[in-house]
Amino acid sequence: MHPYVAIPATLALVYRAYSRRSLTPAGILVAALTAIIHAIHPWSIFFALLVVFFLSGTAATKVKHDIKAGLTQSSSGASGGEGARTHVQVLANSVVASVLILLHFRQLKTRSEISLAKEDCWAYKAADTFSSELGILSRQKPRLLTSWNLRKVPPGTNGGVTIAGTLAGVGGAFIVALTSVVLLPFCTLDKGAKGRDFGNALGLEGGSDWRAQDKFALVLAVTIWGGLGSLLDSALGGWFQASVVDRKTGKVIEGDGGKKVLVRGSRSPIYEKNAGSSRRVESGLGILDNNAVNFLMALIMSVGGMLVISSVWHVPLRSVFN
């Protein structure tokens, strides 16, 4: 990406995060590094996806923020709602995408599966953000995805899903997918290199060979994959991340910076000396915190995306690292 575009754009994002206190100082530093990694790639699409995710995700977070703050509470006892994100949270959400960027930059001309997996990465991150931030406002009681009977749970429970939240997640993935198909630099078809270069396989030819229905299929595929990533995040959260509820208020307690919420007497290894019996575990084993769940979801969906795309282009996944 051209420096005269990337530099002021990165500075603008940093200033926005600083002025609105959406990131901690360390979080701003890591976010700036992430933006630089996206900007060094000659394709503008990756930096654009980062900007779209940041702006749309921030907008979703701000929607009815006061109402959402009253639906959960902080582990410190204050009202809930997303505070300033830490550097750990930024890394959990962006490190997989950054690694894919560097891999694709290293093998720019021959590894399109990394390119599309990178687009998918921000699609399911956007889907997860939209479903979490907007789904909690649903009038419908969330149902625990990982329970056998889909039992009702308090708003903010890890693994709790609603129809509105799922649709919001699909909408977030669609925004990223639409941005991708608009900015993706489609390559021309090389008849003599079937299955080798970007677009040269199974009707997904690049350049002038891309028809409107081909681009629609790409938008649909990225949107669906993003939505599936959001559901995977819910499943991982429901299984491995403990949702702790305050017995007095019945509200889910959110850990600062995505950390575990501590509670005494639970069946999971999450204890707090002064918690007493005022907290209970609604669901989850307490093995992972929210940051670990986000990272694991990104890793699974990215590798899975590359496996699917590699099978379409007939390129062995091991060749990505050659």
Taken in chain order, the helices and strands follow as HHHHEHHEEHHEEEH
The overall pLDDT, averaged over residues, is: 80
Counting H and I runs of at least 4 residues, what is the number of helices?
9
Tally of DSSP β-strands: 6
Structural class: mainly alpha
Oligomer state of the chains in this structure? single chain
Overview of the structural elements:
It is a single chain. The protein is mainly alpha-helical. It has helices at residues 3-19, 25-39, 45-62, 65-69, 87-106, 112-135, 163-183, 212-240, 290-313; strands at residues 72-74, 143-144, 160-161, 243-246, 252-254, 279-283. The strands form two sheets. It has a four-stranded mixed beta sheet, with no helix packed on it. Strands 2-3 form a two-stranded antiparallel ribbon. α3 (45-62) runs parallel beside α6. The two termini are 25 Å apart.
